[in-house]
Amino acid sequence: MNAPAERMMGTLLLPQPYVLFLGDVTVAGYAKTAFGLRDWAAEKCVGEIRLDGATVTTGLDEMTAAEAQARGARALLIGVANPGGVIPASWRASLVEALEAGLDLIAGMHMRLSDIPELATAAQRLGRQLIDVRVPPAQIPIANGRKRSGKRLLTVGTDCALGKKYTALALAGAFARRGLDVDFRATGQTGIMIAGGGIPMDAVISDFEAGAAEILSPDAATGHWDVVEGQGAITHPAYAGVSVGLLHGSQPDVFVVCHEPGRTEMIGTAGYELTSIEEIVELTLVLGRRTNAAIRCGGFSFNTSAMGAAEAAALMAAETLRLGMPVADPMRGGAAFDALVESCLA
């Protein structure tokens, strides 16, 4: 049985800082959670733990669980997303060792920590927490649609897995550098681990999606911004439900459309063409006005990672002229991204 993790406003709060656990991973792509934490929340990571046979590293200091605890770590976080989301038997002695060293365990795998007998027994004996990030909070309310104070920005997309989380993180960082009061509101497992809290929207029952978004971004001071990590796409045949629930519940004042140039089909649904960015803007405005009549588009975030710098710059400049709004790649930064930030804040 999991020990109860701290919760505030119904959202999960994670014990920090972390030591990142890489197991015996040999494929860098399977360690994307660890790399995301290293890139976006390095100040929350004291180091990494690797088992014999591991060939992937984050470049952080390698250490034992006891050394991590001595450096201030409060939790071991499994930074691996392997096929099937399993926690293999070869890892479990090391995870028990972490519990014995005084660390809680955090995972975003499909296999739950609390379903592994040796971990559950050790955690109960030691009074430690087993925190499965993909478990939503209990008793999420039905959305009420009441307009909340404060300001909100939501990242939306033309498809899944094209940069909504990275865009939200980059915008939240840019707002903070301008001296604004801002929070990044995480809605997926890696985002929750980076932020230290949030709600895993893909694990929420559909009737409660909008209610979850409401408690994720509660009333705030007039000048406060919540930058909400988007999920899915409102035209995706499989994942539109979570996208619309987030849109209605977060009541964004501003949204940014995320897109990957060159992608033609939606992920996981062969034969479904990608929706144009113009149609995503139109649909987001129509649906978003249901809970915020003043919703507007702040611009576009392009994932140009497959392009050279010159090609990407030329494309984004041309699209800025065509669309009449800023187009930028947050990972490249520069004047184009500054223009996107200013447009969102205008």
UniProtKB/TrEMBL annotation:
Any Pfam family the entry gives: DUF1611
InterPro entries with a match to the protein in the record: DgcN-like, DgcN-like_C, DgcN-like_N, P-loop_NTPase
Domain D-glutamate N-acetyltransferase-like N-terminal intervals: 58-136
Domain D-glutamate N-acetyltransferase-like C-terminal stretches: 142-335
SUPFAM superfamilies: P-loop containing nucleoside triphosphate hydrolases
Official protein name in the record: EBNA-1 nuclear protein
Domain of life: Bacteria
